[in-house]
Amino acid sequence: MTFILREENLTLFFEYLEGKYELFAPVSETQHEAHFEKVAAKYVAFNPRLSPQGPKKFIFPYKRELFLGPGKKDKALVGLHFSDIAGIAILDKVFKYPIIDQEYFDVREQFLIVGMDHFTAPKDGYDLYLQVIDDYFLVTVGSPLGLKLAGTPLLIKNSKITSEKNLFHFDDILSHKRLSEAVEKSYGSKIWDDLSQRCFGCGICSYVCPTCYCFDVQDSFDLKGNSTRTRCWDSCMLSAFTEIGGGFNFRPELKKRIYNWYYHKFVRMPKEYGKLGCVGCSRCIVYCPARINYLEVLEDVVLEMEGKRGKKPLRVK
Amino acid sequence: MGKNHYELSDAQILWIEEMAPGKRFFGIRFLKESDQRKFTFVPGQFVFLSIPGHGEFAVSICSSPRKRDHFELLVNKVGSVTTALFGLNVGGKVGIRGPYGNGFDLSKFYDKDIIIVAGGCGAAPLRSVVNTMIYERDKYGKLYFLYGARNSQELLFKKDLMDWQKNMKVLLTVDMSDKNWQGETGVVTTLFDHVKTSKSAIAITCGSPVMFKFVLVELKAKGMADKNIYLSLERRMKCGIGKCQHCTCGEKYACIDGPVFSYNQIKDNFEAV
Questions:
Q1: How many domains would you assign to chain B?
Q2: Considering CB atoms only, which of A219, A248, A271 is closest to B54?
Q3: CB contact under 8 A, B56 and A263
Q4: B6 and A268: CB-CB below 8 Å?
Q5: How far is CA A142 from CA A222, B25, B182, in A?
Q6: What Gene Ontology terms describe what this protein does at the molecular function level (chain A) (predicted)?
């Protein structure tokens, strides 16, 4: 079901939402980046800039005590790009199947998700999605709550305009039919040895990635002797990730950890959830201190499988 | 609203036995009668034991599920949580959640000869298997328990090892002999010379990653089919529900696809064994 929202009504629409929810949107202080912050409705507009951290830090916080339970749905993440909504859809699937992780949903369900981007609406992961088109927005409903909120006169029921086909286009290598197969078959390839010479093992890629969700659970005491158990982000790139009590480590070498990161996103997640563990947001490329471009690595891996390494590129750079 | 898998049930320590340096054998019972009554598991499954404030660790249940009034754990003191546990006395309170993991389906082993190969603390989950099999001994063929430890002090469950001899062949070895040790010396694979089983025998093994490599060589040399060899793998575990990624081996999660795997499930897995 779609609606039309006229451009001049954008602020009024977000003021309407602000009446029910605290709004968090990407705002820019510099020309290069955006950061998600609590904002007043009048500041909500389409912001094309990349934020180092997408909505992941809200729906899957860096650190959260366990057993706090659910809360009221009183916050809204607005202005999310297509790839960030895809990231939310993936995390929602991961934490539900095969066994539900209720701690995730206790937080997730506190947020209304409102996307805003030029692309045709994604399949899921949002309550409302505003496709930016000239002087209006084509609003798609993504959930029963979204439908309820669409009952404002600011949104005009649409039956004439079909979604302008501006489908989100993955980089060519991510759409390659044999990508998973290539990564799976590349175990032991020199590509990973070479990469481990460049990679710092810092884990920034996991930090900024919308679909990285490794976590640790740690206990601590306060000065009164009360204990708390906290879930916090972890990264499979870090050296102690697979270390067990007594000191044995199942992945002591950086190249094995790097391979596992690629394997998880491009082999294990497709097998488990039918989707790549990548939304093509390019944050890991922008923020990697070693300037590693995972798309080039994947292209190399596929070319090696096809025996065409160095001969013909598979993607336009 | 789903079940919150991280929630704990209160339990207490019934008894403690010092089995070897740094290795204690605990009897644990849930504080609530209904929790203890409802607690059921399959040999090979594990629980998470919590000492609030210190942390949580995954530990195999080493008693048979047939034992209804309590369950037993063998704990190796290797880090901060296990050290905190060793600081508790009888009556001390712990948090338990579980059971997790797939465990063994013993009905797959009926009418077969079984070779159980344990290394060090790997004997713990295998004890649950053996003590369950003994309840229905006539359902299985020949039973062998091959057990290797570093030295005679490190051989765990000595009382069970004695009792089991009534029902099965128990073969022991130590890496390093001492003046108290009368038995065999050498790695556990040297015991295979004494094993005579049919071609369709089942092997079940648990021990260190190094041990797996050598045991697999021996089992394959005996002509065992990959699908008849079972391994219980250890990994770092945090959630127990296949999310946190700590326990992954290739495409498998040791906490939900395992920790019990048949060798044909993991022989092509680049990091399982």
A1: 2
A2: A219
A3: no
A4: no
A5: 43, 54, 73
A6: iron-sulfur cluster binding; metal ion binding
Q: Alpha carbon of B220 to those of B145, B186, B211, B269: distances in Å?
A: 18, 20, 14, 17
DSSP-derived secondary structure letter, A87: H
Render pLDDT for A256-315 as a digit per residue (tens, 0 to 9).
999 999 999 999 999 999 999 999 999 999 999 999 999 999 999 999 999 987 776 777
| B270–A242 C-beta distance less than 8 A | no
Among B100, B120, B135, the domain boundary falls at B100
Last residue of a domain, one of B100, B122, B157: B100
Rg (CA), chain A: 21
Q: What is the distance between the terminal CA atoms of chain B, rounded to a whole angstrom?
A: 38
State whether residue A299 is helix, strand or coil. helix
Is B50 a member of any domain? yes
Peptide bond into A26 cis (omega under 30): no
Whole-prediction pTM value? 0.94
Whether residues B145 and B61 fall in one domain: no
Per-residue model confidence (pLDDT) at position A1: 83
Whether the CB-CB separation of B174 and B155 falls below 8 Å is answered with yes
- For residue A298, which phi and psi values (nearest 5 degrees)? -65, -40
Query: What ipTM is given for this predicted complex?
Result: 0.93
A12: buried, middle or exposed (CB in 10 Å: 19+, 13-18, 0-12)? middle
Residue B245, min C-alpha distance to chain A (Å): 6
Residue B162 structural domain: 106-232
Annotated ligand binding at B255? The verdict is yes
B236 to chain A, closest Cα gap in Å: 5
**B200 and B137, same structural domain?**
yes
Residue of chain B whose alpha carbon sits nearest to that of A185: B270
What Å distances lie between residue B242 and A154, A265, A286, B236, CA to CA?
44, 15, 30, 12
pLDDT tens-digit readout, A178-213: 999 999 999 999 999 999 999 999 999 999 999 999
* Cα of B142 to nearest chain A Cα, Å: 35
Cβ–Cβ of B246/A268 closer than 8 Å? no
Query: A287: Cβ–Cβ under 8 A, 6 or more apart, which residues?
Result: A52, A204, A205, A207, A208
Identify the CATH number of the domain in which residue B114 sits. Answer: 3.40.50.80
